[in-house]
Amino acid sequence: MRTLWETLGKGPLRDIALVCMAVGVIGLSYGAIAVTSGFPWWFPVLMGALVLAASSEFLFVGIIAAGGSPIAALLAGLLVNARHLPFGLAVPDVLGRGWRRLLGTHLMNDETVVFAIAQEGLARKRAAYWACGLGILACWPVGAALGALLGSVVRDTDALGLDAMFPAVILALILPAMKDRALRRTALAGSVIALALTAFLPAGLPVLVALAALPLFRVKSLEGAAR
Amino acid sequence: MSGPFPLLPTLAAMFALAAGTFLLRLSGPALRAKVTFPKQVEKLLEVSAVVLLAALTATAALTEGDGFAGAARAIGVLVGGVLAWRRAPFLVVVLAAAGAAALLRLAGIP
């Protein structure tokens, strides 16, 4: 088996390392917010490794800290993570075989999926998915542990603009796919739907409802086929 | 240190979230292994991942909770997006997005 280095090359690996580092820094604020909300230091670390889906963990911690019930926090977290089902439908070939498949399944998240999509060819898709996934599996809980130890010192990572990093990363990685006109229209329509519904639906649901824009792509591509 | 909330039920809910999230991650590939989809549906499944990621970008860039996230983050992401569109290196894109948002906040823009 070829190494990740040989398959991916320096450029993509550097990009992946950068994203993993950014995830680690966001982990700092996650760990800090958790301990200053009254969680023991090990809680965000354990949750980070086991759930491995940042936005659902922030939401879980936030609901508990605000006095919400564990059940409410669980349901909200599951709703936010529901997008992993369609993710899994889109990228089943990168997950590996046998026992590795279990780990590969656990590594599925926004960043790994978008890096896999951005690469050409199955070998490169798989390498990008695994490199990013293993990097995040290391950086996210370690970041949370450091944040928990440093506590309120690193609580306000917004001052560093880190909250703009995650959307910019995903945007940069899906831009090449947007060259396809039908796909671009569908993605834009889905984004508008999600934005319009954010004020009315619980977190996680607007992104799922964005899939209601899919018929746009279908109609377009069928027209193309008929021509 | 223990918080003002019951730790054991919270811990149980966390384990349930981990298990539930794993099942959500597992069900897509499991379904694909059992059912063979026509080419067109397969294409549509790929498209749906991009649509989800685009909607995620839009909501993460512009919203926080139920409302607007503030101009600093939105402009930061926009700066990153324009640089990515002009084929700037990934490192530049990401650092410019964070830097622009940080500078705007320094200037008092939320």
* Average pLDDT taken over every residue of chain A: 90
Regions of chain A with pLDDT < 50 over 5+ consecutive residues? none
Tell me the strand percentage band of chain A: under 5%
* Strand arrangement in the largest pleated sheet of chain B: 1-2
Helix content of chain B: over 70%
Label the structural class of chain B. Answer: mainly alpha
Number of helices of chain A: 13
- Please indicate the count of domains of chain A: 2
Summary of the model, kept short:
Chain A has helices at 4-8, 10-36, 42-51, 54-65, 70-81, 84-90, 99-106, 110-118, 122-150, 165-174, 181-197, 205-209, 214-226.
Care to describe what's here?
- The complex is a heterodimer of chains A (227) and B (110).
- With 227 residues, chain A is mainly α.
- Chain A has 2 domains: 4-175, no CATH class; 180-227, no CATH class.
- Chain A contains 13 helices and no strands.
- Chain A has helices at residues 4-8, 10-36, 42-51, 54-65, 70-81, 84-90, 99-106, 110-118, 122-150, 165-174, 181-197, 205-209, 214-226.
- The radius of gyration of chain A is 19 Å and the shape is globular.
- Chain B is mostly helical.
- Chain B has a domain at 1-35.
- Chain B is built from 4 helices and 2 strands; from the N terminus they run H-H-E-E-H-H.
- Chain B has helices at 7-34, 39-62, 71-85, 90-106; strands at residues 63-64, 67-68.
- Chain B has a two-stranded antiparallel sheet with strand order 1-2.
- In chain B, a hairpin with a 2-residue loop joins strand 1 and strand 2.
- The radius of gyration of chain B is 20 Å and the shape is flat.
- Chain B starts with 6 loop residues before the first helix and ends with a helix.
- Classes of the chains: A mainly alpha (227), B mainly alpha (110).
- At the A-B interface, helix 2, helix 3, helix 4, helix 5 and helix 6 of A face helix 1, helix 2, helix 3 and helix 4 of B.
- Chain A: Keywords: Cell membrane, Membrane, Transmembrane, Transmembrane helix, Transport.
- Chain A: It is a multi-pass membrane protein.
- Chain A: The chain crosses the membrane at residues 16-43, 58-80, 127-153, 159-178, 190-217.
